[in-house]
Amino acid sequence: MKSLSGVYRVGGLLLGLMFIGAQTHAETRAAMSDYVWEVLPENARETEFSELCDDVEEESGSDPYQRLYLDCLQKAAENHDNRLSRQWGLSETLAREKDTIYIKVPNRRLPLTFREKYSVWSEDSNTYLTLEDYHPKNQTVTIEKNLWESVNTIMVNLKSGIEQEFTGTQLTFSPNRDYAATVDMDVGEQDVILWQLQADGLYHPEDTAEDVQARFWQHMTYYNGEDFDGMAARVTLEWVTDASLIADYYFKMNPEDTAAYRVRFNYVKPKDSDEWQLIPIR
Q1: How confident is the model over 144-162, as a mean pLDDT?
Q2: Which of 137, 150, 156, 194 has its CA 20 to 30 A from that of 168?
Q3: Tens of pLDDT, residues 198-214
Q4: Are 268 and 244 in contact (CB under 8 A)?
Q5: What is the pTM (predicted TM-score) of this model?
Q6: At what angle do helices 44-53 and 63-87 cross, to 10 degrees?
Q7: Residue 242, exposed/middle/buried by CB under 10 A (0-12, 13-18, 19+)?
C-alpha cells in the first residue's frame, strides 16, 4: 500500500473524523443507512474508441485482423488527440501522427516524441497513448499510457521541457503543487500514491505510516464484506489543502449499473510528521 485519505473539511472536524474511523474496530459490517450512492459519469473516450473499432471483424489468430484493428485504434487516437490539441489552442505545439505524439518545448531543437509500442505476438507488451488533459495556468500536458492491465500518466511541462512518467492515473496536484497524487489501478491493486516535488522539478513517492494498509482494508471490509475481491468502478481524488487529500472509491453491485456506492478515505500529513496518515470516513 502506498497512501490514501479523504475528508470534507479540516480543522475542528479532524478529531471527530479520527474518532469515527476508530469506531470501525468494533463494527464488522455497514448498515444500509451507511451507504452513499452516486451516479457515475460515462467514460466518453472508451465509448468513442469502442464504437469506432469494435466493428472490425475479428478473425482469431489472423495477422491481417491485428493490423486492421491497430490501424483503427491509431486513427481513432490520432483524431482524438489532434481534436483536443486544437481545442486547447496548441496546434503549433502539440500534434499526433499515427502512433506518435509530438510536443515542441523551448529548450529542445527537436520535439519530444512519445510513441506507442505494438506486438502481434505478445499483447501484454503493447502500450497505447492518448492525450488526457491540459492545464493552461501551469502549462502542463498529461498523456495517459495504457499498459497491460495498468495505466500510467506522463506529464510534460511546456515551459521547462521537463517530462515525468507517474505510476497510476488521475494525476492531481495540491494547491501549491508541492504534492501530487495518482491512483494505481493495476490488477489487484487500487492504491493511492502520494508524491512530493523535489529540487530537480520531478516528483518522488512519499512514505505512509505503517498502519495505512491495515486501516484501508479494515474500512473496505466494513463496506464490502470479508470475501469481496472486486475492483472499484471508479476512484476520484480531491485535494482539500496541501496536507489533506480525499480519495473516494466507488463500487457497483452489477457491472451494468450506472450508480455505485462510495467508500471514502482522507490522507493527511501532520506538520510534525514525515509520513502521511490515513483516516477512514463514513
Answers
A1: 92
A2: 137
A3: 999 999 999 999 999 99
A4: yes
A5: 0.81
A6: 140
A7: middle
